[in-house]
Design goal:
The complex is a heterodimer of chains A (480) and B (444). Chain A has 480 residues and is α+β, with helices and mostly antiparallel strands. Chain A is built from 11 helices and 23 strands. Chain B folds into 2 domains: 225 residues, PmbA/TldD superfamily (PmbA/TldD fold), CATH 3.30.2290.10; 114 residues, no CATH class. Classes of the chains: A alpha+beta (480), B alpha+beta (444). The complex binds zinc ion.
Chain lengths: 480, 444
């Protein structure tokens, strides 16, 4: 079986008849300036999407992107240029633009050698071909039918299927050439329910670095349809959410977006090197209660956030961020790791060849504790139980973060009572985990729906956590 | 300029090639768009250059219809083979999509005839060295505001210019060059153990209308400084002023709620509100797509339909939805020439500046930053993280943070008390600050 690096070379270099000696030449030309490090990033990406709406297949789209980005670094300075034509003259021109960040006077005489990631955390397949068009359309129609048969109040169903086939090849200034083939599939169901004058919505979905079969196995996609309807119907019954600071129990899985916003971003290497994060200089500090261990894990097989190698050619890794309450590590790419005197943790990621790599999360989650979820809920006299969330956001510098619940319930006298309307929760990243008083034994990862935005770049990520009790968190309802 | 004319000719030819290839492959109608953009982006931090990025982006997109079945594809590859492959991919998709009588090009008679030149192209051939110097000047101004400005995320200067061409099988083809430049700065302040960050930016079609770098920097520094010492406030109900920059977000939510796709999906809290009172009587909101030099100006929308000036709100009453041809047909209406969005949206300013609005509010919250996306478009329920200033006796008392504000957009719109004349001129959505009736603030 060919290695992913071979596949990437065949996909990206062969059509332009680019040889290893050509890459030697491009890299030598860059290194003729005093450059600390440089890379050439080739990418070919194919995306296909289908949308069902009002019972019909309304839209389909196909997108092909390819190109090459060249980066040259001198100290803290980065020069970057790219081209959407993978041709030798374009590479040489982009290389010249990038190396202009440093004066001439270096020398390079490198020899390209192919390398392969030590582990593959997903199969190098093209997911677009893993179902026929007829089968994709049929799946969408079944989702529509499944949602509508749940309840007569369902009036609108929008179902979508997306597949991405991403092939990348990174050549670094040591001459190491590493390829990766990254499949990604995503399915989503959105419904509107109507009851008299009242309307509500519900959404559910999932995804993975796998074939479309992922959605058919275990009836996953049908379950998204049922879940979207359930969520919408719960929200029809919802009363105003409470306002103020109170105990909050977060359900397992997707509520782990808390960790992504409150902790993860603040531990990214760039902010910490620059000293602009609320976590800067706090390695070794106690930032969470004992029993809280948070990791960033690019090695989970087939997960949406996983990476066999990152976009700098570093293998995907399992990195402990917080261990038993103590801050242990940052999320690093090569540039920030070098400037901070440490190693990349395999988190150098970029949206595409036309973007610069940044330290980014992969799958971020908290390890399980030993409490029964029921016991955690029973410990709360008056508070909120939040199980489904939309997105979140964080101000790295002040540490303040938000995440928005779209399925939540009141806890009264240790029991879940009524559903409440969606509300934003706000807290302070560096101390929110010091208020975690109970950690459940029920770790779950999200269904594979996360997308993280940073400096205008989007990348797929995962989150997860067990049921958690936070003694004090501010709930932004309307019922004071 | 000659260069640009030649390039425009080449891209127009590409659009024609796409359309004729679509016809050759059997499509009954088609539309194609092509864009090409080049630019420079320079970041400086702590007085040194940090990144220099040369950007060069292009793309082509084609949609084909076989009767009322549609397929689309796009690529960044402009070669002859790629054109054929893109059309083939779109045609292949159209074999599997459904017959949908609402689907198709916008009506032929709506196409823009002789679209005017809107003066959108003012390229800035700034040298890298000059861009670095301007960035450093900007950041220096921010850092010298006060010794409590202790760190920086840097300043950046961006310049882009490019071309976009659109054509369809009605025989319409149109295109225009445009440019956009911006300068921005973000700095970090520290007081005791707490850090705060804030930023400022300026953006314009022409470098001549860009705010001077030192002014951008100074504002970034002052805004950061003003946030130092922020504290929480107790949970309560209080009137709220959305500063102009934040009021733009409310305008955007309003436009989202009257967008055709939200309406035909029954996904908007403003469904069935045409001709009804949405805002108080004094409110007028209108669109000026043909404004020369405007940040969102365009003489035709993304379906080739001639754009026109119109009111969305007059006397507080909803006059028009925001429709493209598809959503219009779904609603049995006519497109409003808003395929691709709303172009230059204005709310009639009142006669109070921000200080006067603060005095009118007397006691309440001035919101200067929002976090998160807590809006349920179906119900209008609104709950977001916020930061800003506590106001008493009509004056700012201290900065606040880590709070949320919540309400329902329908009630917030109906309860709009006043719109300021303190316009934020950097956005294609132009408004002053909004004074609203009490909302729920959740805090300590
Ligand atoms: Zn994120």
């Amino acid at each position: 079986m060919p290695t992913t690096t071979n596949i990437a070379c065949n996909t990206l270099l062969a059509p332009a008849e680019l040889k290893e000696s050509d890459l030697d030449r491009v890299m030598d030309q860059i290194l003729s300036h005093s450059i600390d490090s440089a890379d050439i990033y080739f990418q070919s990406s194919r995306l296909e999407s289908w949308v069902l709406e009002d019972g019909i297949i309304r839209e389909g789209a196909y997108n092909i992107e390819q190109g090459v980005g060249i980066r040259a670094i001198n100290g803290e300075k980065t020069g970057f240029a790219y081209s959407d034509e993978i041709l030798l003259p374009n590479l040489l021109e982009a290389g010249k633009s990038a190396r202009a960040i440093a004066r001439s006077g270096g020398s390079g005489n490198i020899h390209i050698k192919g390398a392969t990631a030590p582990n593959q955390f997903y199969d190098p397949i093209n997911p677009l071909d893993t179902l026929s068009e007829e089968q994709k359309i049929d799946l969408l129609r079944r989702l529509d039918a499944e949602a509508r048969k749940q309840d007569p109040r369902v009036t609108q169903v929008i179902a979508s299927l997306v597949a991405v086939h991403d092939v990348v090849l990174v050549v670094d200034n040591e001459g190491t050439m590493t390829g990766d083939v990254r499949p990604l599939v995503r399915c989503n169901v959105h419904v509107i329910v109507e009851q008299g004058e009242q309307r509500e919505q519900g959404s559910s979905g999932g995804g993975a670095r796998q074939a479309f079969q992922f959605f058919i196995d275990q009836d996953r996609a049908l379950e998204y349809a049922r879940e979207a309807v359930r969520l919408a119907l719960v929200n029809l019954e919802a009363v105003d959410a409470p306002a103020g600071t109170m105990p909050v129990v977060l359900g397992p899985g997707w509520p782990g977006v808390l960790l992504h916003e409150a902790i993860g971003h603040g531990l990214e290497g760039d902010f910490n090197r620059k000293g602009t994060s609320a976590f800067s200089g706090r390695l070794g500090d106690k930032v969470a209660t004992e029993g809280c261990t948070v990791v960033d894990d690019g090695t989970l097989p087939g997960r949406r956030g996983s990476l066999s190698v990152d976009d700098e050619g570093t293998p995907g890794q399992y990195t402990v961020l917080i261990e038993d309450g103590i801050l242990k590590g940052y999320i690093q790419d090569r540039l920030n790791a070098r400037l901070m005197g440490t190693e990349s943790t395999g988190n150098g990621r970029r949206e595409s060849y036309a973007h610069l790599p940044l330290p980014r999360m992969t799958n971020t989650y908290m390890l399980p504790g030993n409490r029964e979820p029921g016991e955690i809920i029973a410990s709360v006299d008056r508070g909120l139980y939040a199980v489904n969330f939309g997105g979140g956001q964080v101000d790295i510098t002040s540490g303040k973060f938000v995440f928005s619940a779209n399925e939540a319930y009141l806890i009264e006298g240790g029991k879940i009572t009524r559903p409440v309307k969606g509300a934003t929760l706000i807290g302070n990243g560096p101390d929110v985990l010091t208020r975690v008083s109970m950690v459940g034994n029920d770790l779950e990862l999200d269904a594979g729906v996360g997308t993280c935005g940073k400096e205008g770049q989007s990348v797929p990520v995962g989150v997860g956590q067990p049921t958690l009790k936070v003694d004090e968190l501010t709930v932004g309802g309307t019922s004071a | 300029m000659q260069d640009m004319k030649e390039k425009q000719g080449r891209l127009e030819q590409l659009v024609e090639d796409l359309l004729s290839e679509a016809k050759k492959q059997g499509a009954t109608s088609a539309e194609a768009g092509v864009s090409s953009d080049a630019g420079l982006s320079v970041n400086v931090r702590l007085g040194e250059v940090e990144t220099i990025e040369h950007t060069r982006d292009r793309g082509l997109g084609i949609s084909v219809w076989f009767g009322h079945r549609k397929g689309s594809s796009s690529t960044s590859d402009f070669s002859g083979d790629a054109v054929r492959d893109a059309v083939r991919a779109a045609c292949n998709i159209a074999r599997y999509t459904s017959e949908d009588s609402c689907n198709g090009l916008a009506d032929r008679e709506l196409m823009a005839a002789n679209p005017p030149d809107l003066d959108l192209y003012h390229p800035w051939n700034v040298e890298v060295e000059e861009a670095i110097a301007l960035g450093i000047e900007c950041e220096d101004a921010a850092r010298s505001v006060d010794p409590r400005i202790t760190n920086s995320e840097g300043a950046s200067l961006n310049t882009h210019s490019g071309l976009q061409i659109y054509g369809n099988s009605h025989g319409f083809i149109g295109g225009y060059p445009s440019s956009r430049h911006s300068i921005s700065c973000a700095v970090v302040g520290q007081e005791d153990d707490a850090m705060q960050r804030d930023y400022w930016y300026s953006t314009a079609r022409s470098r001549d209308t860009l705010e001077p770098p030192d002014l951008v920097g100074k504002k970034a520094g002052e805004r950061t400084l003003a946030r130092l010492g922020a504290r929480r406030i107790p949970t309560q109900e209080a009137p709220v002023i959305f500063q102009a920059e934040m009021a733009i977000g409310l305008m955007r939510s309003f436009i989202g709620a009257i967008n055709g796709s939200a309406l035909y999906r029954h996904s908007s809290f403003l469904m069935d509100h045409l001709g009804k009172q949405v805002f108080p009587k004094f409110v007028r909101i209108h669109e000026q797509p043909l404004l020369p030099g405007g940040l969102a100006s365009a003489a035709f929308d993304s379906e080739g339909v001639a754009t026109r000036t119109k009111d969305f709100i007059t006397g507080g009453i909803l006059q028009s939805y925001v429709l493209d041809s598809y959503s219009a047909r779904k609603l049995n209406m006519q497109t409003t020439a808003n395929a691709g969005g709303v172009r230059n949206l204005y709310i009639e300013p009142g006669d109070m500046d921000l200080e006067a609005l603060l005095r009118t509010m007397d006691k309440g919250l001035l919101v200067t930053e929002m976090m998160g996306s807590g809006l349920n478009m179906v119900t209008g329920d609104y709950s977001r993280g916020a930061a800003g200033f506590w106001v008493e006796d009509g004056e700012i008392q201290y900065p606040v943070e880590e709070i949320t504000i919540a309400g329902n957009l329908r009630q917030m719109f109906a309860g709009l008390q006043a719109v300021g004349k303190d316009l934020d001129r950097r956005s294609s959505i132009r408004t002053g600050s909004w004074l609203l009736e009490p909302m729920t603030i959740a805090g300590a």
